[in-house]
Amino acid sequence: MRINISLTTFLSTVQATSLLVPLYLDPSQGVQDGSMAAWNPILTAVANSPNTQFQIILNPNNGPGNSKAGYDSEYITSVAKLNAYPNVHTFGYVHTSYGARSSASVQTDIARWANWNTYTKANIAIKGIFFDEVPNSSKKGNTDVAYMSALQTYAKSQFGNITTFQTFYNVGDLCAHTEYFNNMADYVCIFEDEASKFSTAVLGSRLPAGKAAKSCVLLIDYMSSGFPSANVSSMLQYFVSLGIGSANILDYDYDQANAVGAPADVGSVARILSSS
Prior knowledge:
Blueprint: H1 7-11, E1 18-23, H2 40-48, E2 54-58, H3 73-83, E3 88-95, H4 103-115, E4 128-132, H5 141-158, E5 166-170, H6 178-184, E6 187-194, H7 200-206, E7 215-220, H8 231-242, E8 246-249, H9 266-275
Parallel strand pairs: 1-2, 1-8, 2-3, 3-4, 4-5, 5-6, 6-7, 7-8
Helix pairs in contact: 2-9, 4-5
Keywords: Signal
InterPro entries: Spherulin4
Organism: Gnomoniopsis smithogilvyi
């Protein structure tokens, strides 16, 4: 796939595109020496691209994992390292199972994430909630919106001391509910899929007029897409030219968000966004 971007389009850019990083691996995952080096590529990218805003989703165990602030000592140490950088905004992962999960269960996860902000021995503050599997049925408009509206209100009440608190709604597709964009989420993910399924036409069909800054695009498994390596840069520049608020391209899946050496490793993506 080739993406051609005109100078006129570039000049229409109104804001920087943030880098959304689904950091769904443990700090020591895959590390043989027992160190917490699995997050080092992320930390290096953050340090090397200070002009890129990193929106990092934490997900110890399909959510906060337990009621302990910080989950465990590895997370406490590693999240504190992330939070030492001013260009990092941390989000706690919460799934809603497309609205099938009880509001009480979702609220428990939200409250557990908020509890991280009470920890005083290190800065492990969580500054937002990433709602995954958000209900998005055109046939259940009022039900979906009411469900998410209640969760949004609850989340804001739990994080009232965080002035920069934000929420993501991951619908991953054409959003059926304009309310998500207009009155509720800070960002709505309108594409979350394999890179091979991406096209400018698909994105254009899902991008609401005037809502690019609140839209999120997440491509995974780029290495299996068949696209040339050079397209990583042109894709990211295209997102920036549209004014997309948040985006990322992953070489593999979420468990390998720390992969290095491939065309869409986190350091390369951050550098491209910084220079676009």
